[in-house]
Design a protein that fits this description.
- This is Glucosamine-6-phosphate deaminase.
- The radius of gyration is 17 Å and the shape is globular.
- The chain has a single domain, classed as Rossmann fold (3-Layer(aba) Sandwich), CATH 3.40.50.
- The strands form 2 sheets. The protein has a 6-stranded parallel β-sheet, sandwiched between helices. Strands 3-7-6 form a 3-stranded antiparallel β-sheet.
- It has 244 residues and is an alpha/beta fold.
- Bound molecules: fructose -6-phosphate (F6R).
- Fructose -6-phosphate binds next to loops.
Length: 244
């Protein structure tokens, strides 16, 4: 629990930088799972600052994003491809060929094969060294909505009504919010060597309390993280206010 989201984001960026540098010194890639949305923005800003001012290099970094709306193209205003370019990739020395984000434009019949390959690629690299997460107000991680099994695979999912409502403003109305998305499965997230979940603000306090202190249940996928051997919830004070 940190006094502010700023301080917390700096600490998380430092942890990511440590992993990147450690892997660099071993001559190995750092395999990072990344999230979009408002929660990680300051972490990415801090990583960019470290790149510019402290010479942090991302040349050995390979990234896999959690999710993408189906069927948004990479240049659509709300697409996560665009978000990642604007918030991080365009401002650091990462090789664009090493940045992976689910392809939201695939025809339905090709999605399953794509998802299998996405997971295989992560596994071939030895799994995720670090997974950054946010949490939805319904307890989703990635777009693993309530009802997602702990062993769920990377797949096309129908978005929950809460998720669509929360995205409505960004899309200029509920009717414009996609109904489906591709998400990394819970199983892959649970296999990451380290998981850090970010949550800021009063509006996330109730769901964070349930995820941390309540029962582990498929109705709240973030609660699965209670069973992860190396997980941390990084919160600001207002978000942690309801914790016992
Ligand atoms: C985004 C993602 C989602 C968000 C969650 C919280 O890639 O996977 O699970 O992390 O919806 O979103 P924000 O941070 O906007 O509150």
């Amino acid at each position: 629990i940190y006094g502010s989201a700023d301080a917390a984001s700096r600490a998380v960026a430092e942890e990511m930088a440590r992993i990147i540098r450690q892997k660099q010194s071993e001559g190995r890639p750092a395999v990072l799972g990344l999230a979009t949305g408002s929660s990680p923005k300051k972490v990415y800003a801090e990583l960019i600052r470290m790149h510019r001012q402290e010479g942090l290099s991302f040349r050995n970094v390979i990234t896999f994003n959690l999710d993408e709306y189906h069927s948004l193209g990479p240049d659509a205003l709300q697409s996560y491809h665009r978000f990642m370019r604007e918030q991080l990739f365009d401002h650091i020395d990462i090789d664009p060929a090493k940045c992976h984000i689910p392809d939201g434009t695939l025809p339905f019949q090709e999605v399953h094969h794509f998802c299998q390959q996405y997971e295989q690629h992560i596994n071939d690299l030895g799994g995720l060294d670090f997974q950054l997460l946010g949490i939805g107000r319904n307890g989703h991680i990635g777009f693993n909505e309530p009802g997602s099994h702990v062993n769920s695979r990377t797949r096309l999912i129908t978005l929950d009504q809460t998720t669509r409502n929360d995205a409505a403003t960004e899309f200029g109305g509920l009717a414009n919010v996609p109904r489906k998305a591709i998400t990394l499965g819970v199983r892959v997230i649970m296999q990451a060597k380290r998981v850090v979940l970010l949550a800021w603000g009063e509006h996330k306090a109730a769901i964070v309390k349930q995820a941390v202190e309540g029962p582990v249940t498929e109705t709240l996928p973030a609660s699965y993280l209670q069973g992860h051997p190396n997980v941390q919830f990084v919160l600001d004070e207002s978000c942690a206010a309801s914790l016992t």
